Amino acid sequence: MNIGIDSISFYTAQYAFDLEKLAEARSVDPKKYLQGLGQERMSVAPPDEDAVTLGASAAHPLRRDGKLDDIDLLLFATESGVDQSKAGGLFIHGLLDLPSRCRVLEVKQACYSATAALQLAAAHVRGSPGRKALVIASDVARYELENPGEATQGCGAVAFTVAADPAVLALDPEAGYHAEDVMDFWRPNYRREALVDGKYSTRVYIDTMLHCWRDYAGQSGRGLEDFERFCYHLPFSRMAEKAQVRLARALHAEADGKRIEEWLEGTREYARVTGNCYAASLYVALTSLLDAPGKDLAQCRLGLFSYGSGCVGEWFSGVVQPGYRQALYTQQHRAMLANREPLTYRQYEDIYHFLLPEDGADHVLPQYRTGPYRLAGISNHKRTYEAVD
Ligand code: CAA
């Protein structure tokens, strides 16, 4: 029985900040961001947008199209949680009016958690093929101003359903994973901005990727040429190129720049203009690839590498299903990205410095451009969300 991704939808904030403007403000050569990191723009979440609204907006088209009518498991994968106790997925469960017979929980392990959620959802479906699960990965990536990580900030969410006989991607049974207690990137509870040991984090990413590959290849017997494309967790889009070069080198494969580009083609376009989406990032890469024009990927095998600092990594794979393009939201994704509002540097800083009140009093938030849901305010320490007409 095939199990995997049956539908997939991506959402990002309606405001975008151009990295050339950031480079000017930071007196940095823009080529460092555009070429060195491979980033052009970052999505910026306004004060009335958070991981919950981004996630609900990503899942909205699936709800509208009746794809969530029979889910009985909702896993919300995020490291931008809005409450220490209540799962953010419950706000989404309410906003989308999902079935009450449903297990709902929030999962966290930095940017890796959506992959754990996908595998847990697949196991849930395997237990009884009539079951269907919804995974929502959603994050807002935030560093201190003037930190080297600033140019990699971004936000976005991907919602996908997991079912038997999937329309988009059938998962292979093999998965190679690796965990290690390291401090490469973290965010203590008392901080809004992540802390990162930047260069070290990229080294740990690569080492973890190679550990996971050895585990995956040992189970599957597959080599590089068994894959049409490779999707990577993209903290910044050039990370994929660095990882693929190191993988090819470790396998003594003949791989010049052209071959590396072929393996990654289509996977980085969305990340390049949204920035890091943490838990959603690998699935933004997957959506970007599936939406890409050109080669029909039906029956092609994709390799996927998920990385979460701290750290856990996983290599897994799947086969794209015939007719997959009919199950996608390609036009909607393209229109959303094309219609974002550009920010000036001053607007970017103003939004950055906005602090949600913590006094528990009643606060109504100003209305910005958002998707179908927004954070309307706070009352008696309770967040109130609302649908936007
Ligand atoms: N023209 C062209 N390229 C230029 C350039 C110019 N004028 N100036 C610099 N570059 C290149 C550099 O050569 C470098 O490329 P290489 O890596 O190929 O050498 C690239 O631009 C970046 O330059 P630096 O390495 O000097 O940049 P930096 O040290 O200031 O910052 C970073 C890079 C450490 C990745 C930083 O952006 C950062 O801390 N990011 C956040 C952490 C992160 O994303 N880590 C990734 C792994 S951890 C993870 O994946 C989890 C997660 O999501 C956070």
From TrEMBL:
<feature type="binding site">
    <location>
        <position position="242"/>
    </location>
    <ligand>
        <name>(3S)-3-hydroxy-3-methylglutaryl-CoA</name>
    </ligand>
</feature>
<dbReference type="GO" id="GO:0004421">
    <property type="term" value="F:hydroxymethylglutaryl-CoA synthase activity"/>
</dbReference>
<protein>
    <submittedName>
        <fullName>Hydroxymethylglutaryl-coenzyme A synthase</fullName>
    </submittedName>
</protein>
<dbReference type="Pfam" id="PF01154">
    <property type="entry name" value="HMG_CoA_synt_N"/>
</dbReference>
<feature type="domain" description="Hydroxymethylglutaryl-coenzyme A synthase C-terminal">
    <location>
        <begin position="176"/>
        <end position="248"/>
    </location>
</feature>
<feature type="domain" description="Hydroxymethylglutaryl-coenzyme A synthase N-terminal">
    <location>
        <begin position="2"/>
        <end position="164"/>
    </location>
</feature>
<feature type="active site" description="Acyl-thioester intermediate">
    <location>
        <position position="111"/>
    </location>
</feature>
<feature type="active site" description="Proton donor/acceptor">
    <location>
        <position position="233"/>
    </location>
</feature>
<feature type="binding site">
    <location>
        <position position="29"/>
    </location>
    <ligand>
        <name>(3S)-3-hydroxy-3-methylglutaryl-CoA</name>
    </ligand>
</feature>
<feature type="active site" description="Proton donor/acceptor">
    <location>
        <position position="79"/>
    </location>
</feature>
<feature type="domain" description="Hydroxymethylglutaryl-coenzyme A synthase C-terminal">
    <location>
        <begin position="271"/>
        <end position="348"/>
    </location>
</feature>
<dbReference type="GO" id="GO:0006084">
    <property type="term" value="P:acetyl-CoA metabolic process"/>
</dbReference>
<dbReference type="InterPro" id="IPR016039">
    <property type="entry name" value="Thiolase-like"/>
</dbReference>
<dbReference type="InterPro" id="IPR013528">
    <property type="entry name" value="HMG_CoA_synth_N"/>
</dbReference>
<dbReference type="Pfam" id="PF08540">
    <property type="entry name" value="HMG_CoA_synt_C"/>
</dbReference>
<feature type="binding site">
    <location>
        <position position="276"/>
    </location>
    <ligand>
        <name>(3S)-3-hydroxy-3-methylglutaryl-CoA</name>
    </ligand>
</feature>
<dbReference type="InterPro" id="IPR013746">
    <property type="entry name" value="HMG_CoA_synt_C_dom"/>
</dbReference>
<keyword id="KW-0808">Transferase</keyword>
<feature type="binding site">
    <location>
        <position position="143"/>
    </location>
    <ligand>
        <name>(3S)-3-hydroxy-3-methylglutaryl-CoA</name>
    </ligand>
</feature>
<dbReference type="InterPro" id="IPR011554">
    <property type="entry name" value="HMG_CoA_synthase_prok"/>
</dbReference>
<comment type="similarity">
    <text>Belongs to the thiolase-like superfamily. HMG-CoA synthase family.</text>
</comment>
